[in-house]
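Why predict the complex rather than its parts? Because the way molecules touch one another can change local conformation, and only a joint prediction can capture that. The input here totals 506 residues.
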Amino acid sequence: MLTRRQMLYGASTLGTGLAAGLALPRNAWAQGKLALDPSLPTGVRESAMLEALPGKVKLIKLTHRPPNYETPVSYFNELLTPNDAFFVRYHLANIPEVSAASWRLKVGGEAAATSFELTLDQLKNDYKAYEVVAVNQCSGNRRGMFSPHVAGVEWGPGAMGNARWKGARLKDVLDKAGIKKEAVEIVFDGADGPILDKTPDFVKSIPVWKAMDENVLVAYEMNGKPLPHFNGFPARVVVPGWTGTYWMKHVVSIMAETKPFSGFWMNPAYRVPVGKFPVVDRFLTQETAANTPITEMVVNSLITNLADGHKSKPRQPIEVKGIAWDGGYGMAAVEVSIDGGANWSRAALGQDAGRFSFRQWSFKFTPAKAGKVAVMVKATNKIGQSQTPALILNPAGYHHNVIQKITIDVA
Amino acid sequence: MKTATLAFAIILAALPAAAQEGGVTLKKGPGLDVVETNCGSCHTLDYIRMNSPFMDEKAWDASVTKMIKAFGAPIDQANVKPIVEYLAKYYGKAP
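Output of the joint prediction:
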């Protein structure tokens, strides 16, 4: 007999395209010690726990079904986030385990000259493979650190990861279908869906101009390995620079359409107020007078090797390390302040893995005497955008890129 | 993708409520059973604790209304009040 969890994560009732389920170990959740950011809601600080999903290391479980699991900050000390530590985000709980053999990708739509289906082998063999290192970040990363709090998944800083994605160019797949000039949006659907028929399925669209960008992939590999189940096996859309909402997991349908797609997850969901954020990419076919779909990530940075309250000694050298990233312009500079923001010095930048990747940085200093040292970090990208000193409020809690500040206790 | 989700939902509804699924239990009090039955069919109850205690009764009411109107949750109108009252009392913002 199927257990409840087998059904929820495996859903073997879903037809021929989908293989039998996998079960979570009975006591998968062993509570570990968690140092969650004090600015998160009390409720999530008390209820979040370290728990391993099948195929994953222990991540910070915020919700179990649908699964929303955050990557602990320590994993961001590596340039590429390991597949088994990569964050997991689902809106809807009906998540079939898709088999590589029976998976099919439908390509077509009203604005396509032809329609066809691809097997995984065809996607891999009939299209030239490309690679891109790119950050996949949830639109609501750090939502839990909003003040006042806004409802939603109360993420800390780990609803993101950086990976080397490999796949076919979406443009090449669309070119084979023959996209007509009337096309305005490309619509993606994945194999996962809602529990109830009345719940809107998670379907997303991007503008045609973005879909034809050579960096946008239908990816089947992540860091040299097949995608983990919980990150979209066997194939997902990769939209470098844009937030994770467009990176459709378990993608089974790519449709070119002549009209803007009007599903719930395009409107009212995933919207930001018009003109409130310094973003360049605009999704005009979806824009209203009041709001517009979230597009590219805003410039951001994170200290990864030291936590707030870190203890050190006078005259002992301290190295602060971390990462910086943005929506695809690339990092121009990362600056660190050790006096609470009065003076800033440049951090040393690490290897450049491309403009869509995390950029590692480090900064060394030696405190001369005892006391509290307020360390702040601020990234600036190549088009001159920098992080905000004060939170930019918005109803859904997106684009949190407030300059981070930690205190080091030198005694 | 929406293939065969109705059959799936029927099987799901026939299962006993797994109040502790996800390793999270809610505070005991009037309305908890209605919350477990109605909210727990589509998501684990950790969603409730996670979003606490910063929502007042009005915000919880808006959340339950969103579940019904936007997500199609089959919650009887008669159950809306006890759900909202439970959430506001045990997981709401202090007045």
